[in-house]
Amino acid sequence: ADGDGAVLISFQDVTEQRRTEAEFVKTMEFLESLIDASVDGIVAADMDGNIILFNQGAERIYGFRAEEVVGRMSARELYPEGVAEWVMRRLASEQHGGAGRLAPTQLEAVGKNAERIPIRLSAAMIYERGDPVATFGIFTDLREKLRVEERLAEAQQKLASTERQALIAEL
Question: pTM for this structure?
Answer without folding.
Answer: 0.73
